[in-house]
Structures are given as structure tokens and as C-alpha cells.
Amino acid sequence: QQQVKQSPQSLIVQKGGISIINCAYENTAFDYFPWYQQFPGKGPALLIAIRPDVSEKKEGRFTISFNKSAKQFSLHIMDSQPGDSATYFCAASGGGFKTIFGAGTRLFVKA
Amino acid sequence: SAVISQKPSRDICQRGTSLTIQCQVDSQVTMMFWYRQQPGQSLTLIATANQGSEATYESGFVIDKFPISRPNLTFSTLTVSNMSPEDSSIYLCSVARGSGGAFFGQGTRLTVV
Q: Do B45 and A99 touch (CB under 8 A)?
């Protein structure tokens, strides 16, 4: 009930390509779904987030797609750049529950 | 946005000793959260610290091992007690964002030898 499952564990994308990371959740009480970006030696930083009343949110090159019926959401990074190489965590929170993090995806963008 | 400062940024400690990690926030917050991130792993919530009350610990974490103080609305400490090599992790302080999600400090990288 409390898990957030994230895939893939690692991802290699060519510069200019699209990076796609997927997450699935169980608890329908979650009402906030953020994505965090973490560089080595740094704390996670909020990248983009969505609430379940919308199916898509776009901020610059980053887009979240949200499928409420399937209880799945994904992060798309368009025109991926080497500077996007980092670990990405999906998360879910709400309904009085703590923030639950996915396992993380290590993204490497090849120049 | 909140600015969170953690001290120390990293430390190497002998097993059996204790380390206290400090977290300072630049604004008053009701709840502060302490996370552990083991090498190459995700973030696991240790406990939630409310000012004026005892911290609430998650399953698998106990107060004797991870005592927490929250003396005011901008400061908290986490102590890792009687350390063993398995405690080698990054410890992160976090506060909630008003609009959702969380701000994180830079973390404290702890190595126990």
C-alpha cells in the first residue's frame, strides 16, 4: 500500500533524446506526486510535481504524465542534455501519509 | 523557498561512538523530517520532529538509536548513537513546502569505520 515502484533502475540516453522514467503507486489516498533530481553530493531538489486532477504537466523540457486509473505516472525529459545526468526519484504523498520515495533512476546522457 | 543548512557536511567516525547532526532552517516550520539515504539507495524516513513534542519514528527506527531534538521552530538535531559500519549513509534534513513536496538540506555523509 505504501510503495512507490520506479523503473528503470538506470537509463542511458543520447544527447537530444527523450528520457522516460516510470512510477506506479498503490495507495489511492496519495494526492501529490513530485519528482526530485539529485546530483552527487547534493540533497534532492524538487523538479516538477503533479496532482491527480490533471493528466499532464509541463515545465520547460520536463513533463509529467499522470494516469489516475492505472495509478501510474511518468517523467519525460525532452532534448536530454549531459547536464541532466543525475538520479531521479519519484515520490508520492498526501492524505496524512508521509512522502514515499521510489527507488531512484540513474540517468546518464551521452554527449 | 526554505534554505536548510546541515552540519557537518561529512564525517568519518569510529564504531561505537555517536554523532550529532544539526539542521538549521531559515524560516519557522512546524515539522522537520530526517531521512537516511544508504549508498546508492533511495530515501527512507527516519522520523518526524515537531517542536515541543517527541519525535515520531518510522518502523525500524528507534529513539535510543536515533534521538532527535527540536528545541525551536527553526532547528533540529539527529544523533546517530553507538554507530556501526551499517550506519554509513547520507542523513538528510527536510521541511515541507507549503504548496507540496519538500525542501532538503545538502545532507551529512557519514562513514563509520
A: yes
